[in-house]
């Protein structure tokens, strides 16, 4: 047996040497791409190229490596490649170990620079001013619906959505106290809402306190007597607060959608599996919404989401957020948007980007 183990380990060692050589060759190619991009002053991060690479490596996988493991490996390879092309900074809702931070790491890997921001508005501002190359914000949750703070900021911003990501959210109660002694629970409003039934059942007398981020709630719980926080388990490890209860979200399949913001839109070629986000206002007249949707229906463009929000310009005035399958530059989409512009006072393109796997 020892002889057989030694033989197999020697084979692994030899393969590791080859893998390292191949990886370095790949990254040298990435460096050359970075030089070409900088010379042409084009985008370093290209979401449609990333989606294409992940699809191709997934189709080449014959196992036993699981698809999720292969994707995680390639995420770090591409992260290292991006850092060689140009150092990138990504703004997220901080402090460290929030769900937004986890989403940023999952998209960009560990080789880029990350900047925690105090609020969602600060993320938009940092990207607009060039203090960060990209930003990541939550826009909706499968349990509680839209994240209002994010949607409202799209009205004024010139930023574009360049990518999206769906992430399962597992909420953990973190506290130095037993349940019987917890008097306050700190977390982001969305996290508190996603755990509403559990909190009513197990902590009916505790005060629920909305704070700017889940991780900030953990920082408070680390210092305040009788306090707890709802946050990812990673936040408890990061700030030294023990786990009091796990899986406290009301629904098992609790998923959040995050979008990534940039100063430039994704490429015109698209990935072949794209989504377009729009912001639309309507005339105050009967049938206005129906007429606004007809250009998409006639061209068999599927609306995957429609959401209304107060415009904040005048009372009872609303704007609508639309997600439509297809790319902005597709002929059918262009025709639909041209027709829509004749029917609506405002049609704002928020970006086109590869559809994220659920």
Q: What features would you highlight for this structure?
A:
358 residues; alpha/beta; Chorismate Mutase Domain, subunit A; D-Maltodextrin-Binding Protein, domain 2; 4 domains; six-stranded mixed sheet; five-stranded mixed sheet; 25% strand; globular; isomerase
Q: What does this protein look like?
A:
It is found in: Cytoplasm. Pathway: Metabolic intermediate biosynthesis; prephenate biosynthesis; prephenate from chorismate: step 1/1; Amino-acid biosynthesis; L-phenylalanine biosynthesis; phenylpyruvate from prephenate: step 1/1. The chain is of the alpha/beta class and 358 residues long. The protein folds into 4 domains: 2-85, Chorismate Mutase Domain, subunit A (Up-down Bundle); 89-169 and 255-261, Periplasmic binding protein-like II (D-Maltodextrin-Binding Protein, domain 2, 3-Layer(aba) Sandwich); 172-245, D-Maltodextrin-Binding Protein, domain 2; 269-354, Alpha-Beta Plaits (2-Layer Sandwich), CATH 3.30.70. Helices cover 42% and strands 25% of the residues. The protein is built from 12 helices and 15 strands. The chain has helices spanning 2-40, 47-60, 67-85, 99-108, 120-128, 148-153, 189-194, 196-202, 214-221, 233-239, 288-298, 331-343, and strands at residues 89-93, 113-117, 134-141, 145-146, 160-168, 172-175, 184-187, 207-210, 227-231, 243-245, 255-262, 274-281, 303-310, 318-325, 346-354. The strands form 3 sheets. Strands 1, 2, 3, 4, 5 and 11 form a 6-stranded mixed sheet that branches. Strands 8-7-9-6-10 form a 5-stranded mixed sheet. It has a 4-stranded antiparallel sheet with strand order 13-14-12-15. Helix 4 links the parallel strand 1 and strand 2. The longest helix has 39 residues, at 2-40. The chain is globular and about 80 Å long. It starts with a helix and ends with a strand. The relative contact order is 0.13.
